[in-house]
Every structure is written in structure tokens, then in C-alpha cells.
Amino acid sequence: MGQFEQATVQKKANIYYDGKVTSRTVTLQDGLKVTLGIMLPGVYEFGTEGPETMEILSGELKVRLPGAEVWQEIKGPETFHVPGNSKFALEVFTVTDYCCSYPDKL
Questions:
Q1: In sequence order, what are the beta bridge partners of 24?
Q2: How far apart are CA 34 and CA 102, in angstroms?
Q3: What is the distance between the alpha carbons of residues 43 and 92, in angstroms, rounded to a whole number?
Q4: What are the two backbone dihedrals, phi and then psi, of residue 19, each rounded to the nearest 5 degrees?
Q5: Can you tell me the distance from the alpha carbon of 62 to that of 85, in angstroms, rounded to the nearest whole number?
Q6: Alpha-carbon gap, residue 21 to 41, rounded angstroms
Q7: What's the CA angle centered on 86, arms 83 and 92, to 5 degrees?
Q8: 3-state class (DSSP) for residue 17
Q9: How far apart are CA 72 and CA 59, in angstroms?
Q10: Could you tell me if 100 and 23 are in contact, meaning their C-beta atoms sit under 8 angstroms apart?
């Protein structure tokens, strides 16, 4: 899906790591929340409450998912899933465009 129809976008940005990772929260008509954002090159760690689906629309990075010993290479477009109540690490090599969805949060 290349676009969202009939959605509400929060004006205030979510800003992490001194502005190197930013996103905007979008609420879809059915109540599902997604974030659309950009990550600049760097190394980051994020925690999750519920499960997340990360859709990398463009960019190059590596991700280390919970319990994994090795980093997984991602070149957009590609998707990966993060379990709830966990932490994951990212090493971003190029400006990366992403969409994160939260299937448990309606």
C-alpha cells in the first residue's frame, strides 16, 4: 500500500537521538496507529511495548533483533518484525525512510 486514505496525522513529531530519528503518528480510520519517519546514519536502540512491524521503504541498515547473535542486513524495501516487550538495535548506513505499524494498538 503506497498511501493511507482517511487518516489523521499528529502535527507534533516524535524526535529521538537529538533529531537523528524522527516520525509522525498517523491514526487510520480503523484506529490502527502507524508512524512514518526518517532515520539518519547512526547506531540506535529502541524498546517496544507491543509487537511492531518495521517496513523499510528505502535505505540501508542492519538490525539485531531480540535474542539474535548476528545482525541482519536490510536494504529497502524490506520488512521485519519485532516482538513486544523487547529491545532491538539498528545500525543505519544511509538516510532511511520507514513505516512502523503496531498491530496490537487499536
A1: 36
A2: 6
A3: 6
A4: 85, 5
A5: 20
A6: 9
A7: 90
A8: helix
A9: 14
A10: yes
Q: Domains plus CATH for the chain?
A: 8-101 (2.60.120.10)
Residue 103: band (very low, low, confident or very high) from pLDDT cuts 50, 70, 90: confident
Rounded to whole angstroms, how far apart are CA atoms 56 and 97? 6
Give the pTM.
0.91
Model pLDDT for residues 57-79, shown as the tens digit of each residue? 999 999 999 999 999 999 989 99
Run of H or E residues at 16: strand 14-16
73 CB neighbour count, 10 Å cutoff: 12
Residue 87 identity (one-letter amino acid): K
Residue with cell 543505519: 92
Contact 32, 106 (CB under 8 A): yes
Could you tell me the end-to-end alpha-carbon distance of the chain, in angstroms, rounded to an integer?
19
Edge-to-edge strand order for the sheet containing 42-47?
42-47, 87-92, 60-64, 72-75
